What we know:
Elements: E1 2-6, H1 10-22, E2 27-30, H2 41-46, E3 54-57, E4 65-68, H3 70-81, H4 89-119, H5 125-148, H6 159-172, H7 176-179, H8 187-197, H9 200-206
Parallel strand pairs: 1-2
Antiparallel strand pairs: 1-3, 3-4
The chain binds glutathione (GSH).
Residues 9, 11-12, 33, 38, 50-53, 69-71, 103 line the site of glutathione (GSH).
Amino acid sequence: MLVLHTWTTPNGKKVPILLEELGLSYEIHFVDIGKDEQFEKEFLAISPNNKIPALVDHSAEGGPLSIFESGAILTYLADKHHQFLAPSGHARWKAQEWLYWQVGGLGPMLGQLGFFAVRSKDKAPLAIDRFTEECGRLLGVMEGRLAKCPYLGGEDYSIADIACYPWMVGATTMLKDALGRHLHDKPAIDRWMADIAARPAVQRGMAIKPPVGV
Ligand SMILES: N[C@@H](CCC(=O)N[C@@H](CS)C(=O)NCC(=O)O)C(=O)O
């Protein structure tokens, strides 16, 4: 049995997308980070960095296995089920390169921009400028990659695309005004977004919601 501990944020939607793509059955345990549930003892036992997502695979080889960090979880599931990540060779490392790019760059920078430009009541112009410019630079890098190949890893849809997509939805909706001109004239990103948005598994993964009353 797979139990995913997650929330409805971009990082929280990556693993549901992959689980849906793989057609696996799983349970979701919603960790409401708005209520600080990520600091509860039971959650810290599987995710000591107090962040979602975390996965527990109760039928892992060698006994139950818990994994935190979305990139590690995506890699584990893709390898275990032999899909959405090549087992070796150039295609594997190109997909890993862009997966790490998301986890270390696109996600944290868009997250900081969201904090300073949208969520924070105090508006700090230096921070907003810094993160707007850095996010704009990253979007330029992504546009360059997707102008050369259909997917971030190359020819095939992979966990790198799955990791970036929920963040790009945030970039083009919640952060649209903050990013302004940086979203204009990005035909390769627009094409990629439409392609991924059309996948039924992506739609299901993006739609996760805690049951009413939770
Ligand atoms: N690098 C981590 C980032 C995870 C992350 O930032 N999760 C956020 C929600 S999107 C979180 O749990 N925040 C709670 C907190 O910081 O206390 C990953 O990719 O899994």
